[in-house]
Amino acid sequence: MATYTTDVAVIGAGTAGLAAERHARKEGATTLLIDPVFAGTTCATVGCMPSKLLIAAADAAQAVRQAIDFGVTAEPVLDGRAVLERVRLLRDDFARGVRQSIEELPKGTCLTARARFEAPGVLALDTGDRVEARAVVIATGASPAVPKPYEAVKDHILTNETIFELEDLPESVGVIGAGPLGLELAQAMHRLGVRVEVFDAGDRLAGLPAEASDALHRILTESFPIHLDCKPDPSASDTGAALTWDGGKTRFEKLLIAAGRPPNLSALDLEKAGLELDDHGTPVFDPGTLQCGDAPIFIAGDANHDRPLLHEASDEGTVAGRNAAAWPDVRRTSRKVPLSIAFTRPEAAVIGTIPDGTEYVCGEVDYGNQGRARVEGRAQGLARIYASAEDGRLTGAALCAPSGEHLAHLLAWAIQCEMTASDMLDLPFYHPVIEEGLQMALRDVCRQAGLSRPWQRNDEPLPGSDGGASED
Asked: What pLDDT score was predicted for residue 469?
């Protein structure tokens, strides 16, 4: 049995863990990176990239179908095996790039093992070895949860970790969970010719506020059923799994469980680290420093379940790695504006803070009549922009709109720069583009907040540009 001594031990070699190790080492600390498989990041292997590859294939099929709207006659011929083969080919290439970066780490950095706390600052490895560290970063990520009732049909269960390994597209898929992942894959499968239905115990889609959720629900249910406030009961059937709920019963070849990804913490023996845990068993930590209480232990990425997104994991790993290396000289960082995107068609997003009080104003644009969206046959959805009633400063937004991923970035940047609606209207908007639609919502905010219009700015909409007439 060997005992390794290091300044910073990082548990988990995903996005957060890799960033933590790199930045701890940049601070001059000795580091150890501990992971059981070093397979690559969740994003590259079973998350962002393979799901977007499947969506890209679905977009291609839908574009062929929709060609008739433009006077072009065509009909897609779907080869499910070829679709999934391309997904895996490019997915494996992305993952290979991550693994190559791991291989380039300094010799002796990586330990292939599972770690658990034996005491504060002491890790026991399943290889029989031990690690003694001045500081520890927990970056163990998260895994899909399969609710207990679904164990009865486990042979027909898919998760984001297995769906991309299918050799061919199934005939039908029941999707459990109407979050971003469930909706993205449900729509993609539907567009690739799979019969799909979605079930969720909640009353909102993709974490959206009511108005944007309702808009997305109307759009998606034109193609496939979405059952909200619904907890179906699974049971085995001769050719798959059956779901029964109030008023309905149907059978699916496969069930995709997209009902959440809890942090991978249960095997760490956190109680031996002397940490205070919340009701879910997650260490209580400071989001500005990523430090767990007063201990030289930091938690980053999906493991803390605060903002389980790749760009947040990268940022958190950077902060946690630096602070672990410099402990007790811990620095606090301000966080970026929250930004979450569901890559449905149209895309849906939540940006910043959605207020629930009365000290705010809200401007809205209906993309069902926006010029460029109509040109492209994508005229559907809406965007709602929230701002302080006092000065019109932007605070948040929610949308379900064509090119929503790009609109969301523009709004996130504006919010982080503490711009008012009037400040944003002073920026250039080209014609004809999807972004023009935001002007209608921004003008609405200006009117409600009582912001004066600069004399040289034309706030009259160009004909057909943003789908709304000025009310000034």
From this structure: 42
- d(C-alpha 254, C-alpha 138), whole Å: 34
Q: Which amino acid type is present at position 368?
A: G
Would you say 386 and 360 are in contact if contact means Cβ atoms under 8 Å apart?
A: yes
Decide: pTM greater than 0.85: yes
Both structure tokens of 431? 């014609």
Distance CA 397, CA 413 (A): 12
pLDDT tens digits, 315-360: 999 999 999 999 999 999 999 999 999 999 999 999 999 988 778 9
Find the distance separating the first CA and the last CA of the chain, reported in whole Å.
77
Dihedral sign for Cα 293, 298, 304, 310, please: positive
Report yes or no: 380 and 402 within 8 Å, Cβ to Cβ. Answer: yes
For the record, the structure tokens of 248 come out as: 């309905």
3-state secondary structure (DSSP) of residue 165:
helix
Check whether 471 has a pLDDT greater than 60: no
Residue recorded with tokens 């002397």: 274
- Of 265, 263, 17, 272, the C-alpha closest to 121 is 272
Per residue in 6-36, pLDDT (tens digit) is 999 999 999 999 999 999 999 999 999 999 9
Taken in order 430, 431, 435, 436, the sign of the CA dihedral is positive
How far apart are the C-alpha atoms of 294 and 466, rounded to whole Å?
Answer: 52
Distance of CA 253 to the CA centre of its chain: 27
Contact between 311 and 41 under an 8 Å Cβ cutoff? The reply is no
For the chain, the C-alpha Rg in angstroms (whole number) is: 24
Token look-up 């290979």 returns 96
Distance separating alpha carbons of residues 392 and 374, to the nearest angstrom: 30
Parallel, antiparallel or unpaired: strands 347-352 and 339-342: antiparallel
- Kind plus residue range of the DSSP H or E element containing 157: strand 157-158
- The residues, ordered by sequence, that sit 6+ positions from 30 with a Cβ below 8 Å of its Cβ are 6, 7, 8
Q: What pLDDT, in 10s, does the model give residues 45-97?
A: 999 999 999 999 999 999 999 999 999 998 899 999 999 999 999 999 999 99
Which SS3 state, helix, strand or coil, does residue 277 take?
A: strand
Which one, of 271, 289, 290, 294, lies nearest residue 281 by Cα?
271
**Which letter, b or e, does each residue of 317-354 get, where b requires 16 or more Cβ atoms within 10 Å of its Cβ?**
bbbbbbbbbbbeebeeeeeebbbbbbbbbbbbbbbbeb
Q: In what order do the strands lie in the sheet with 240-245?
A: 233-237, 240-245, 248-252
Task: Give the whole-angstrom CA distance, residue 440 versus residue 217.
Answer: 23
Our measurement of the distance from residue 382's CA atom to the centroid of its chain's CA atoms, rounded to an integer in Å, reads 20
Please, are residues 122 and 269 in contact by the beta-carbon 8 Å criterion? Answer: no
